[in-house]
Amino acid sequence: MLALAVQNLASPSVLFFSMGIGASLGRSDLSVPEAIARFLSLYLLISIGFRGGAEVAHQGLTLALVLTIVAGIVLSAGLPFIAYVMLRGAGLDHVNAAAVAGHYGSISAVTFVAVTGVLTQLALPYDGHMIAVAAVMETPAIFSALLIARSGHQGVKGQFSGDFLREIALNGSIVALLGAFAVGWITGERGMASLKPFLLDAFPGFLCVFLLDMGLIAGRGLRDGWRSLSIAVAGFAWGMPLIGAAFAALFAWLIGLSAGSTAILMTLGASASYIAVPAAMRLALPAANPAIALTLSLGLTFPFNLIVGIPFYIAVAQMVAG
Amino acid sequence: MLALAVQNLASPSVLFFSMGIGASLGRSDLSVPEAIARFLSLYLLISIGFRGGAEVAHQGLTLALVLTIVAGIVLSAGLPFIAYVMLRGAGLDHVNAAAVAGHYGSISAVTFVAVTGVLTQLALPYDGHMIAVAAVMETPAIFSALLIARSGHQGVKGQFSGDFLREIALNGSIVALLGAFAVGWITGERGMASLKPFLLDAFPGFLCVFLLDMGLIAGRGLRDGWRSLSIAVAGFAWGMPLIGAAFAALFAWLIGLSAGSTAILMTLGASASYIAVPAAMRLALPAANPAIALTLSLGLTFPFNLIVGIPFYIAVAQMVAG
Amino acid sequence: MLALAVQNLASPSVLFFSMGIGASLGRSDLSVPEAIARFLSLYLLISIGFRGGAEVAHQGLTLALVLTIVAGIVLSAGLPFIAYVMLRGAGLDHVNAAAVAGHYGSISAVTFVAVTGVLTQLALPYDGHMIAVAAVMETPAIFSALLIARSGHQGVKGQFSGDFLREIALNGSIVALLGAFAVGWITGERGMASLKPFLLDAFPGFLCVFLLDMGLIAGRGLRDGWRSLSIAVAGFAWGMPLIGAAFAALFAWLIGLSAGSTAILMTLGASASYIAVPAAMRLALPAANPAIALTLSLGLTFPFNLIVGIPFYIAVAQMVAG
Amino acid sequence: MQLFARKRIEILIERALLKRLADELDRIGEIPYSVAPLAGGRGRAGRWEADGQVGKAAGMFVLWCIVDAARTDDLLKVLFAIVARQVGLISVSDVQVCGQT
Amino acid sequence: MQLFARKRIEILIERALLKRLADELDRIGEIPYSVAPLAGGRGRAGRWEADGQVGKAAGMFVLWCIVDAARTDDLLKVLFAIVARQVGLISVSDVQVCGQT
Amino acid sequence: MQLFARKRIEILIERALLKRLADELDRIGEIPYSVAPLAGGRGRAGRWEADGQVGKAAGMFVLWCIVDAARTDDLLKVLFAIVARQVGLISVSDVQVCGQT
Ligand SMILES: Nc1ncnc2c1ncn2[C@@H]1O[C@H](COP(=O)(O)O)[C@@H](O)[C@H]1O
Ligand SMILES: Nc1ncnc2c1ncn2[C@@H]1O[C@H](COP(=O)(O)O)[C@@H](O)[C@H]1O
Ligand SMILES: Nc1ncnc2c1ncn2[C@@H]1O[C@H](COP(=O)(O)O)[C@@H](O)[C@H]1O
Ligand code: NA
Ligand code: NA
Ligand code: NA
Questions:
Q1: What's the rounded Cα separation, in Å, for the pair B99 and B281?
Q2: What are the structural domains of chain B?
Q3: Which residues of F touch C278 (CB under 8 A)?
């Protein structure tokens, strides 16, 4: 496991992420134009979705998929409650705790990519349809966060309007992910043959530039945001992933997933959103400070998962599924 | 032909286009940054142009090319007059009819790409220099539209100034297309060897993102613009391509083009511009409402050609040239 | 050598550069969005840096590298003094001469790429670590330019503050280049295997778009700026590269570099910066007119090196090292 | 050139709220407006930059409308209701417009 | 700090017309100006967004010049002649500039 | 709607100087500001366009702060000291802000 951690640490994408953090902390003016950053995230979502769909076209739909999707929804909707209790315990106020909790129920697409990359390197097979599970886990956490925020507080109200629900469901990143998934499913191997150079071969390169950018953003967040974090709250960013992963491992064991798919579900449980959820929270819980969630999820939890978490989840998954 | 239509319908690029339309109609906030959209159109023009030039370097110049170029100019200059009469018949006012007519004389680069893609899949050979024909067909239609608009109307005047002519001729998209064509011609196979991964292998991927964006724009146009369209005008968007294709088939038959090249000339005749012409019309005919032309060409004619038109033109071309 | 010059002249990248100049001089509205241009320069720096690092991982560190780095620093710091004297002789005023001199001590990453491309074509081996030499040559020239500007002039003062030094050292382009170099070094062949399609295979394509853009900018500079240039100053843009190359050849010979590496060091000495140095000069010497340096370095010296210089430097390098 | 007095209302607004604000301006009578992107800034919540941002939560815009003075008060009430709870600064100034708008 | 009264003229203009307008400002005496891109807006012709647009027909800009009050009237006439037939709104306001411009 | 009189200070500034200016605004008391990118313009140094530019030397921005009239004079002195030697135009106008800012 240590060897895996070291190897993971020395992968180009992790190194580019560190380079971004370093440049940001050192106040370099290195930056990625906003239009490029938005394109890279669109590219990653399309590539991940398409590959997932092409995999499903290859393997077909199974009962395991349906069960795993249910497990994903339960995890996404349930974890925010645990996160909220922990964050309140760590001293965060009601609204901020609810907002951050929403981030930790949802998932991070790049962390998903990282675990599949390591599994591929280890030649550990996993189900292509796990991308569909990732997609359904994006949103339930948002509703749990709102439920939590409203409970016993008059101030936060009226957000479950039809408009708001549509905005959440038709969020651009979810449409891109699911749309590309559908295209991959319909066109299958034929589609993959023509799109392989762009969506597959160039993927590690685009991912490195994206992670460089994420590092730059995380570094900015850490630079400006660490003072507003207590040690207890920072500790949450490293403890919560383990709890999420543990619940995911339990579900995976109940469903009887393979070691590879178990590792992925654990990683999904352990990861925190920093693309889809922040926007929803901004709309629904304007009183929450977005810098807190960003610093925790991108500055602390994401590198933790990349370096320590993923090797650990894979080791556990092999025991659980072995 | 039906099998071909279905297969075309299920190609990744058509599906991404549909996904864009769907996202737009459903009011998702999915979007492609403007800088990326502009880059994608530049990339497509360079890729198409370069490949055309490299083909010509390979095959050499022929009399057929010269004749086809003449045919292309005649089509581009002539079709707007037919389109104008039809549009007036459908109830559109003078200036808008002239502006829309200009769009239908000119061509759509992406429709050109689509037909060559299908021909390649069918292993039906075509002449590489058809891209040069596409390039010369871009502009004559603009002048016809202006001639039509001015006929008997004092209001529309003085637009054939030297400045305006230079703006049209040195339009960025035409310079990119012809410039890349020249580079492809000069560097031939040697150039193609070094640029293949970027210009050829990655092409289907970039095309999908571009078509996703076109779908988003077309969806916006349909959402906001359909109310300003009568059924007769919408019918024009599906009838005019057939007329354009018929004239093109006639010319192709006279010149004795191969089945593949005939299909391409028909598609060029059938397609309508939505990049180069709109800008020229904005300058020359400011009284025209740009939303009408965009909705017709991108929202109705483009998908019609993609799904119904191209398979039909290929079937006809095989009969004409067979 | 002539054959090489012609072949170089007919490479896609040089032709795209010419196409850009032509489009700009002809006042076409062809343009590359700013966000894309910035991304392309980031991409080139990352690609060059990574490949250099991967090479060093392959070959290891040598005494020759250390010596060549020292030679690079001396060249970068020393050449501005020669350039300054020449520019004053050509009639440029004190501050502008100092600013332009700074550009000519530093290096141009794209010219570096061009020479390595030609060497690869000629199957002439060179040391991968030359990219590290290029990186260290970026900045010393900036300090020399400031020293020159301040000598005997009270007006230009107080610029060697800690902040300014940090801004120069942590300049985004240098961080990208050195960071990618480090990543390439650490991940070596393993990293290269995953990033090859993006960083290596697609490189010639991205380079062509970048050079198209550089051509557009150079053309704009020539169009607006040539009137502010005397013939003597323009002559400097073609004479100075030869002087820089001569000194570089001397150092290369002393160190005993291979023909390939000699040609690269000569090209570095001969090339002038147009990305990192202009920004530093803007901050430090606001009284200098940035258009002069840009027109000279991008409009005159860059094409000179591309077309005449590189074939000549390679010929000389083969004699020096032979 | 004939000039007519109008008010220019300018709002600094987050990306996440932009659509809501635009929909609201539509609803209360098709108020014309223009939007331009910001590249960065600083406020009570500290410094920020647009560069590198990916999500819909990041980014700000400046939206302005040039309207009749008579409409200003109503409009300000509507705008203030939307941005009050969130980042956002509303300012009003006097302009004159050209022609018959 | 010494301040001098000036006029700020602001025009909303389509991409297709921008070059013409700039050339005209050049012609009538090298008028200084600045241009910023718009991200969207709504007017009589409905709502629009810059995102995803590719052609030169799409997109709008805001162009402004800070000029002497004495020049304003001449300038407005020229500007109005260009944008009158097209989308475009011209507004004028009072500003004070710093220093010797 | 209650409105309060404020000053709006607007500066046109080169990319190279932007960070310095922002740091200075920080230093003298966390002055709030917003920055928007320019797409082009023309001044004494001629015409320029943002398109295609790569370096940090190219590009301009417009930065503005809405501040108390009382603070204006101090602020202008600081700003002028930074941009005086460089490209840059500072203008001031009257605005009213909404709410309690
Ligand atoms: N007085 C002001 N002048 C200019 N921009 C402001 C002002 N106040 C706020 N802003 C902008 O609004 C953003 C959010 O402000 P805040 O909510 O105070 O953090 C800032 O980052 C600035 O871009
Ligand atoms: N009164 C106004 N205030 C702000 N922006 C406007 C105004 N009128 C028009 N615009 C802008 O100009 C564009 C075109 O206006 P129109 O020609 O009326 O459709 C709109 O989409 C807005 O971006
Ligand atoms: N009076 C003005 N009105 C609007 N923009 C200006 C003005 N003066 C200068 N600018 C902008 O500032 C840039 C640099 O000005 P300059 O230093 O005079 O070349 C110009 O290219 C314009 O973008
Ligand atoms: Na999670
Ligand atoms: Na046509
Ligand atoms: Na040099």
A1: 6
A2: 40-212+230-320 (1.20.1530.20)
A3: 55-58
**Alpha carbons within 13 A on the beta-carbon side of A246:** 7
Over residues C76-101, the pLDDT tens digits come to 999 999 999 999 999 999 999 999 99
pLDDT digits (tens, 9 = 90+) for C248-289: 999 999 999 999 999 999 999 999 998 889 988 988 888 898
If residue B2 lies in a helix (H) or strand (E), which one and from where to where?
helix B2-9
pLDDT, averaged per 10 consecutive residues of chain B (322 residues), comes to: 72 94 94 96 94 86 89 97 96 95 95 91 89 90 93 60 79 91 94 95 96 94 82 94 97 96 97 89 87 92 93 94 82
Q: What is the DSSP letter of E39?
A: -
Q: Which residues of D fall within a CB distance of 8 Å from A33?
A: 51-52
User: Over chain A, what is the mean pLDDT?
Assistant: 91
Contact D3 E92 (CB under 8 A): yes
CB-CB contact of F9 with F90 (8 Å): yes
Take residue E23 and report the two structure tokens written for it.
């050339």
Report CA(A112)–ligand 4 centroid distance (Å): 11
Taking the centre of ligand 4 as the mean of its atom positions, its distance from the CA of residue B253, in whole angstroms, is: 63
pLDDT score for C223: 87
Q: Does E83 touch chain B (CB under 8 A)?
A: no
Q: Write the CA distances from A67 to A62, A64, A253, C270, integer angstroms.
A: 9, 5, 12, 66
Alpha helix segments (H runs only) across B196-309: 203-225, 231-255, 259-270, 276-284, 290-294, 302-304
Domain ranges of chain E: 2-99
DSSP assignment of A102-164, as one string?
HHHHS--HHHHHHHHHHHHHTT----TTHHHHHHHHSSHHHHHHHHHHHTT-SSS-----HHH
* Domain F2-99, CATH among 3.30.70.120, 3.30.260.10, 1.10.1670.10, 3.40.50.300: 3.30.70.120
Q: Are E10 and E67 in contact (CB under 8 A)?
A: no
CB < 8 Å to F36, chain D: 36-39, 62
Strand partners, F89: F12
> What is the model's pTM?
0.95
Which is it for strands F33-37 and E46-49: parallel, antiparallel or unpaired?
unpaired
Cβ distance of B183 and C29 shorter than 8 Å = no
